[in-house]
Write a structure and sequence with these properties.
This protein is an alpha/beta fold. 41% of the residues lie in helices and 25% in strands. The chain is built from six helices and ten strands, in the order αββαββαβαβαβββαβ. Helix 4 (98-107) links the parallel strand 5 (89-92) and strand 6. The chain starts with a helix and ends with a strand.
Length: 165
């Protein structure tokens, strides 16, 4: 029985690590299919309250580019950090809370693409979601929240739109 528990825990952890690794890669790939009206000198991906994700992404993006711009990864903890880091993309790994609500209010009229891995947050708050269901990764977006950004048709084709336009 103990062996079974250890085996199940190992399998769960291995799948979890693979899921996070895949999501990290997808953040970068999906960002290539979004077009902004204006770009900064570098392409800034901001990660909310997840140092582990930030560290992994920093290693992953070395010598890579998005829209011919060097990719920089920033840790953010409040809307003030966004002002300093000029985020093009913000990735949230936790459910909506008061800090995230402040950030979303701050960026409401800015060209910033938001991504989460919490499915239900896409319906009302976040523009794009990546989540696992039945051992498959699913893509969901809320097009009514995507104002001045243009998503490539390839992304739209693989993504369920729950927008209320």
């Amino acid at each position: 029985m103990k062996f079974l528990k250890i085996t199940l825990l190992t399998v769960f952890l291995f799948q979890s690590i693979n899921a996070d690794s895949l999501k990290n890669e997808l953040i970068i790939r999906i960002s290539n299919f979004v077009n902004w009206n204006n770009y900064n000198d570098d392409f800034n991906i901001c990660i909310f309250n997840s140092y582990d994700t930030s560290d992994v992404l920093r290693n992953k993006v070395r010598n890579k580019k998005i829209h011919d711009l060097n990719i920089l990864i920033h840790d953010i903890h409040s809307y003030k950090d966004i002002r300093n880091n000029h985020c093009e993309v913000i990735y949230f790994k936790e459910e909506i809370n008061s800090k995230i609500s402040e950030i979303l209010e701050f960026i409401k009229h800015r060209d910033i693409f938001t991504i989460t891995d919490i499915k239900n947050d896409v319906y009302d708050y976040i523009q794009y979601g990546l989540y696992y269901e039945n051992n498959k990764i699913k893509f969901i977006m809320n097009s009514s929240l995507i104002k001045n950004l243009k998503l490539n048709y390839r992304i739209k084709k693989i993504t369920q739109d729950v927008g209320r336009s």
